[in-house]
Amino acid sequence: MQFQFDSLASFFAMDGHGPYVWASYGMVVLVLVVLAVTPVFRQRKLRRELQQQLRQEEARRRAATTRAASQRAAEVVE
Amino acid sequence: MGSEAVEVSLSKKAQPGKARGVALAAYARVPGFYTLFRTELVLAARRRSDIVNPLLFFVTVLAMMPLGIGPEPEMLSRMAPGLIWVMALLATLLSQESLFRGDYEDGSLEQLALQPQPLYFPVLAKVLVHWLVTGVPLALLSPLLGMMLNLGAEGYWPLFVSLVLGTASLSLIGAVGAALTVALRRPGLLLALIIMPLYVPVLIFGTGTVQAALDGYSFGPQLAVLGAILAVAAALAPLASAGAIRISLEN
Amino acid sequence: MSWQWFHRLGSPRWFYQKSSAWLPWLGGAALSLLSVGVVWGLGFAPEDFKQGNSYRIIYIHVPAAFLALAGYYIMAISGAIGLIWKMKLSFVVMRAAAPIGAALTFIALFTGAVWGKPTWGTYWVWDARITSMLILFFLYLGVMALSGAFSREQSGDKASALLALVGTVNIPIIYKSVDWWFTLHQPATLKLTEASTIDPSMFYPLITMIAGFYLFYAWVLTLHTRTMILQREGRTQWVRELVGASAPAKA
Amino acid sequence: MSSSAYKSSATSPASSAQNSPVDGCSLRARDLSCERDGRVLFAGLDFLLPAGSALQVEGANGAGKSTLIRTLIGSTSDYHGDILWRGKAFPGALSVMRSELLYIGHNAGVRRGLSPMENLAWYGAAAEDAMAALDAVGLYGFEETLCQQLSAGQNRRVALARLYLPGAPQLWILDEPLAALDVAGVESLESCMRGHLQRGGSVLLTSHQPVNIQPLAKVNLADFQPQESHLEAEYGF
Questions:
Q1: Residue-range definition of the domain harbouring residue A26
Q2: How many other C-beta atoms can be found within 10 angstroms of the C-beta atom of residue A13?
Q3: Do D235 and C236 touch (CB under 8 A)?
Q4: Is-contact D168 D195, C-beta < 8 A?
């Protein structure tokens, strides 16, 4: 088994078929990269959204408990 | 499967109208195939526009074709089988959207689904009526259009027969799509998108029949394939539609 | 309780936790096989005496076409499992498989068209295989469109699973009929790929690429499935814990 | 499927009927919870609907009344817990139950392109029975008019006329049967349902207004709100 082309230039040219071959391989690389990368980005975004939602719920819960506590305190004062 | 078969035979015995005075459980609410079929036919006859519109569409679009591609008789006669078949396909597809819609909206589809009888026969009755009011008139009209498009004389009979067989398959296959999209508000284009690819074999063998006859070959084999497709579709498509109806009703 | 493993397999949570261990292995193996195959196929495999160097597109065209078809069956089978055993996970897999399959079908179509230019002198030829691929692409698009059309997720799952199943019944028929149609209209002259006559020195890189594509498919399918699980199960306790645990305390 | 966490919330009047003899029992829900789109609508629902009695399901809009009814008639299988018909569990008993079911839902199941007579014939009624039933719901003189020419209330009556046919099935499940009826219509329907109960049938209905039939049990879905523990039981593995 040996490299089939004399030079790098002839490897890229592929006897005139270079544009077709490289366009095909380029498109494949593009599509495969998009396939592999989109879920990673989406997962990151989802996690961020969920975390934000969790923080909001936590804040709401804390606000509710402090409000209840202050009410109780007010009743005691009365 | 076994128990279903028993129920079917029971429901067939309990013909509507004869059950009066019989015990509670035998109350015949299950419409038999004939009742279903006749009801659909009555409904179709009362909505005449549903019958006429696909036909008008078929004729109008085909009349447009020579305006688009030119009036040369030779070119038209070469394209005639394909054009007529594609238009028949579109006309069937467009009329199919409303196949289950009315019944879904007024709740009678739900009532049918509640019957202990499988949905196979109600679907078959509906598709049969749909074919009778769209496919058969299209086939009957096709010689006229063949004449307008300069179709060769030996192509008329195969065109008619292939349309009769093929539109039945189209109605059956399209029913699956209609059942899948019945719960959606505007299914028009989606229905075309999901059903068109499934129409491919019917289209190929439908035009193939006519082309073979025009080329002077026997068109028996192509008709046989169309018949085989119809047989498979008649066996499977109502089952798939029944499943799709249950899915849509759950929505 | 021998079925427990089966139902645990259907649990999205179980899959999410287990699959994180598989991912690096799958991804690493896929990428290394693919890079070996690409270098081998582009640089070291001998030139084809008839087609010249343009044949090197085979090393991506054929694996993509393989996976496009296999992917449809993977999608349909997981949909069927979801319909029959009501497994949440299998519907997620089905939905994740649809865009991946469509992308691979697109690759097969694109590379086929580009390959056609130096071979036939034109980008698009209604070659039997390419036409079948195109119809397969439409089938994928139909499943994707239908699954997205329902506002209620479960209905979309079931409806598109049923459509995918109907498609699997049709695919062999479509392939056969397109094949027949092609031989009718233009007798086979030069086929892009003829597996029987391929030399071993060209064949081994092809096998490597096919294996690489399969692994890549598995890897990407897992990635997409995991993302969709996270999206769907956002309400559940375990996702909240997972997200909360990995959250840097920013607030 | 079932978890002991649900039991604590089962404190409705209907659940006290659990101790009654199961013999004459027709429809029963045990520890039933339904979800829709990932949200649990109600959980731990218990009720018993014996032959000769009626059950009114109450609850605010969106509490899950329709979902409960669709679950009971088997249109959706998204539930946890048990539903039993004559002591046999769903989904095995579903086809038997359906053969003894008369269901009138939100969409009445009246075909607009048919006349009232034809609609009833489609449901298997003989001509003179259909005529009498249409008389009973006050549609005398409209028997042969197409339903698309009738008003919404009249269409509703066509659907309800099925209840007046002789030899009606054992179990009636009615979604808001009293809606769009005038006072006389409500009274007539109530007496029809009373007659059905006397013959040993059973009725499950939803209604926003009081229903004057006896014996009538009530279930309020608000009493079966899911608690945190349910959510975990639902999703935890």
A1: 17-77
A2: 16
A3: yes
A4: no
Touch criterion met for B and D (3+ Cβ pairs within 8 Å)? yes
D-chain residues near B107 (CB < 8 A): 105-110
**C104–chain A nearest CA distance, Å:** 8
> What is the pLDDT of chain D when averaged over all its residues?
79
Query: D164: which 2 tokens?
Result: 């007046």
C200 assigned to some structural domain? yes
User: Does the residue C206 lie in any domain?
Assistant: yes
In a domain, A47, yes or no: yes
> Is residue B2 pLDDT above 90, yes or no?
no
pLDDT band at D74; cut points 50, 70, 90 = confident
Name the residue facing C111 among A2, A28, A47 (closest C-beta): A28
C237 → closest Cβ in D77, D78, D232: D232
Residue at C12 is within a domain: no
Q: pTM for the whole thing? A: 0.86
- The alpha carbons of chain D give a radius of gyration, in whole angstroms, of 19
What DSSP string runs through C118-133? HHHSSS----HHHHHH
Residues of D in contact with C233 (CB under 8 A): 235
- For C10-47, the pLDDT digits (tens) are 788 888 888 889 899 999 999 999 999 999 988 888 87
Q: Which of A23, A28, A54 sits opposite C243 (nearest CB)?
A: A54
User: Distance, in angstroms, between A76 CA and closest chain C CA?
Assistant: 33
Please report whether residue A58 resides in a domain.
Answer: yes
Total domain count for chain C?
A: 1
How far is the C-alpha of C241 from the C-alpha of C235, rounded, in Å?
11
Out of C146, C150, C174, name the one closest to residue B200 (CB).
C174
At C202 the three-state DSSP class reads helix
Provide the residue ranges of all domains of chain D, joining segments of one domain with +: 111-167
Does the CB of C4 have a partner CB in chain D at under 8 Å? no
Chain centroid to CA A73: 48
H, E, C per residue of chain D? CCCHHHHHHCCCCHHHHHHCCCCCEEEEEEEEEEEECCEEEEEEEEEEEECCCEEEEECCCCCCHHHHHHHHCCCCCCEEEEEEECCEECCCCHHHHHHCEEEECCCCCCCCCCCHHHHHHHCCCCHHHHHHHHHHCCCCCCCCCCHHHCCHHHHHHHHHHHHHCCCCCCEEEEECCCCCCCHHHHHHHHHHHHHHHHCCCEEEEECCCCCCCCCEEEEEHHHHCCCHHHHHHHHCC
CATH code for position C174:
1.20.120
Domain that holds residue C129: 26-236
Give domain limits for chain B. 1-30, 31-250
In a domain, A7, yes or no: no
What is the rounded distance in angstroms from the CA atom of residue B153 to the CA atom of residue B143?
10
**C-alpha B17: how far from its chain's center?**
30
Q: Is C238 on the interface with D (CB under 8 A)?
A: yes
CA neighbor of C65 nearest in space, from C110, C116, C104: C104
3-class secondary structure for D208-232? CCCCCCCCEEEEEHHHHCCCHHHHH
Peptide bond into D166 cis (omega under 30): no
Is position A46 within any domain?
A: yes
Tell whether D110 is within 8 A of chain B (Cβ).
yes
Upstream peptide bond of B31 is cis (omega within 30 degrees of 0): no
Q: pLDDT, tens digit, for every residue of D131-183?
A: 888 988 888 888 888 888 888 888 889 999 988 988 888 889 998 888 888 88
Could you give the 3-state DSSP secondary structure of residue C198?
Answer: coil
Average pLDDT of chain A is 86
**DSSP label at residue A78:** -
**Tokens, residue B192:** 């075309």
Quick check: D37 and C238 CB within 8 A?
A: no
Distances C3 to C10, C77, C92, C156 between C-alpha atoms, Å: 11, 19, 21, 27
- Is chain A in touch with chain B: ≥3 Cβ pairs within 8 A? no
